[in-house]
Every structure is written in structure tokens, then in C-alpha cells.
Amino acid sequence: MSAVRTVLGDVPGGELGVCDAHDHLFFASPRLPGEELRDAAAARAELAAFREQGGGTVVQWTPYGLGRRAADLPALSRETGVHVVAATGLHQDVHYDQDTLAALRGRAADVFVAELTRGIGTSGVRAGLIKVAGGFHALDAHARWTMSAAAEAHHATGAPIAVHLELGTGALDVLELLCGGAGVPPDRVILGHLNRSPDPVTHRQSAGSGCWLAFDGPSRGNHATDWRMPDAVRDLAEAGFGDRLLLGGDTTAASARSVDGGPGMPYLLRRVAPRLALAVGDELVRRVLTENPARAFAVDWH
């Protein structure tokens, strides 16, 4: 039986409720000095604010080595009543020191599988997806290595693979590597940040493969995406791909949290969803926030 692997255990996809399909409760990278998400109290407040807007699930895409704080996630989920899904995987190499990457050479897939099946570190919290990342219009050696490891871990567990597309680019190269070369079923691949490169042809080609398309990051003020995203979603819906779409917030900086004066997780439901409904209707928005993630993150675990 398929289930979504949350930090409190496996649950049927239908129990997720309204889902923020890509966000971060904890995240720390040398690329964002001074903006680390490390405060558990702020994470709790952010989840509570999301819950007040009708939110039911947050999928945290924070991968290995970037401050996931997996041991803190179960209590936050219980206290706020919001399901939380954790991730394994690796981000771009610029987020890590070379010693960390060297220690994973030849064993990344094994680490991913262990975190999906046994737990992250000593926390006992099992990851529910694998997060990897591409580069700007290209896949470098690091991306190819981590995606190959992710594909191996997928074949061992069934876990979905979520992909950070740098500025929304490289979608077709990712699909060629994961699905064409590594044999990952397209419906187990989630492409993130497509709103950052509003190319309708690439969007439709990607959706046509059967993968999931995530439109996320409305908090990013340096990407003119909020006003373009409804048109991109409408184009895909009119082409028959409304059942392949996901929405997320991708809050990666402390200043972007609603409890610190930014839009944060509640903004997805407070402003983005109503704006999108004007373009595609309330019913499609409901399905994108509930039915689609229930299928995208549910796995026949093995």
C-alpha cells in the first residue's frame, strides 16, 4: 500500500490535506551567511501560521549536511498538527566543504537509502524523498554523481526524487539523465523552480514526460515570478497537465519567514493560491494543493 513517509511515520496520501510541496523549516548554507534557519521556536511559529491558513503538510527539501535538524521535526509536527516530510540527498557542491563531499564518494546512495529506511543520523526520523540539484542550463559532474546516486536509492526504496533546477533551467537534461539513462519512472521525479524560467515549451515537454512540475518560491523578490506563474499554470492546465502540478513556498532565509517580517509559508495560501485561482479557478487550485501532492509523495515503499 502506498504511503507518504512523514517524520511521525507513514500516512496515506489522502491525509496530507493542503500541502506546501517545497519549503524549509531548517536550512543553513555558507551561500546564505546570516540567514540560517536554525531557530526551533521560529520554525514552530511558522508552522502554526501555516496551519492557521488551512495548511496540513510541509515537505522540507533540506538535504544532507545543510542543517536539517531532523530530531526536532517530530515534536514540531505533533505540536502544530502539521505533517512534515524530511529529505535526504545532496544540494549543489557550492553548499558544502570538500571534506563532506569526499566522505560521501562511493557511498552516497547507501547514505540516502539508510536515511530513507532506517533514519537520519540517530534521530530515527526517516526521510520521505531524495533532493538533488542541477546547474544553470547544465549538469556538471557533481550533479551527475548525485543524481546517479539518487536514482540508485530510488530503485532500492521507491522514494521520489525532487530536483532543484537552477533558475528553473535544465529540466530536459535532468529528465534525460534520471529517466532516460537511469531508468527512474517520470512520475517519481519532481522538478522544482519552474516558475523561475517561464518557458511554456519546456514546461509542456517536461510535463509530457509524466513528471511533476513544482512552482515554488513566491518569497523570492529578485525573481519576477508571481505575476508570470498563473499564466504558466494556466497554459499547462489548458494543455491537459493540471494533474502534474505542485505549489510550494521555498523559504530558505530567516528574513523570508512570516514571523520575521517576510511572506513565509502562510503567503502560499494567503496570497498565491487566491491569485492563482483567478487564472485557473478554485477547483484546480484545490487539486494542486491536495490531490496532486497526495500522489506525488506517496510511495509503495520497498
UniProtKB/TrEMBL annotation:
Annotated family: Belongs to the metallo-dependent hydrolases superfamily. Phosphotriesterase family.
Protein name: Phosphotriesterase-family protein
Organism field: Streptomyces coelicolor (strain ATCC BAA-471 / A3(2) / M145)
Organismal lineage: Bacteria, Bacillati, Actinomycetota, Actinomycetes, Kitasatosporales
Taxonomy, superkingdom: Bacteria
Requisite cofactors: a divalent metal cation
The entry's keywords: Hydrolase, Metal-binding
Binding site for Zn(2+) 1: 22, 24, 131, 250
Residues engaged in binding Zn(2+) 2: 131, 164, 193
Record's cofactor remark: Binds 2 divalent metal cations per subunit.
Sample GO molecular function, one term: zinc ion binding
N6-carboxylysine: modified positions: 131
InterPro entries in the cross-refs: Metal_Hydrolase (IPR032466), Phosphotriesterase (IPR001559)
Record keyword Metal-binding present: yes
The keyword DNA repair is annotated on this UniProt entry: no
